[in-house]
Give the backbone structure.
Amino acid sequence: MKKAIAAFLCIMLTTGMISGCAGREQEPDTTQESTSTEDAEDTQNLQDDESGTQEEEQESDSQEENSSETENQETSDSEDRDMTEDLAMSVLKDQAGTVDYTSLEELNPEAGSRIAVVLKSTRDDFWNTVRKGMEDAVDAINEKMGYTGEDQITVSFDGPADDTDVEKQIDLIDAVLSENPAILCIAAIDRQSCEAQLEMAAENDIPVIMLDSGVDNGPVSVLCATDNYAAGVEAAKRLAEAIEDQGQIAVMTHTESAQTSQDREKGFTDEISKNHPNIEIVNISHENEDYTMEEMANAVFTLYPEVKGYFCTNEEASNAVLDAASAGEKELALVGFDSNEQQRNAVENGSEIGFIAQNPYGMGYAAVTAGIRADQGLTVDSFVNTSYQWIDSSNLKDDKYSSYFYG
């Protein structure tokens, strides 16, 4: 029976992994609208229907009003906050490339121009923060140019509900291209996608700015992104230090086809294989439709009970492994990616050693300024490095890093 269970778990992991169940060492391989309120209301309405009493309905209505007031206050606080002078923007100014992507001095966009943005998803705090950066940049440009009414520069946002839905994203790109925007910004779900759309944009003199995740083929003016390979290397060094440079570890990655996932994984595995010979990567699982990431993490804990560490390449992967470890009372060193509330709490209570926090606000701001520069024929870098920060218990409460927190 134990052999049968082990075989089943191996099959599960094989569905979404590149290192196997034999315990061999890993061979190194040579990125919008929020609907969370709607989901909360649907859940509350279902509870109301089941209760069937007027008293509970009144109580539920009161709770909904209080929740709405709280959410509105949080949204207002977020919107009122000036992020243009904080650490994220100062790092962007100093490190992004050969020009200052926080500066509007040379920008003179044509009145009434539109920037079309197609993101990976419309249900992600990361992308909401990217959106805020883009909107703030557009507002600043309109103010600088004195554009009002129909003369204002505008920005539109689209994206699939599911960040693995490549076909839907392509359909959305086709739709916005048909409207002939001045600039097109894309966060590609699949690095093998979009080539025909990029060619069409080039034929119509529309500069393309890739956000977060790039593509392998097709004309692109700029990639605004985290240096994901370097971030993967950083994560490997931090995890190796936490486990005293020896023992078994595993990796949980998000969408395998995304450049972000591939680069983070490669940076991590290259660093481990080259510089940490006493650490063995026993499993790398990739997000897939057959098993949840939490199920795959549970399988890893069962097959490799001695696993000491985990690297997770995005917010969803980090949350899944945290949940699996908590449910199974598994103690391990975990390095996450992105900076949602669950991970911040995990660092605070010691169940996560730290995480790589990206700069989505700066990414969005730079995408706008780089796009306008490209449209005007000004100097622009092919890669705009929007930076990241390592966050652990030593700087989690430091207010200067707060602009790197999202979700």
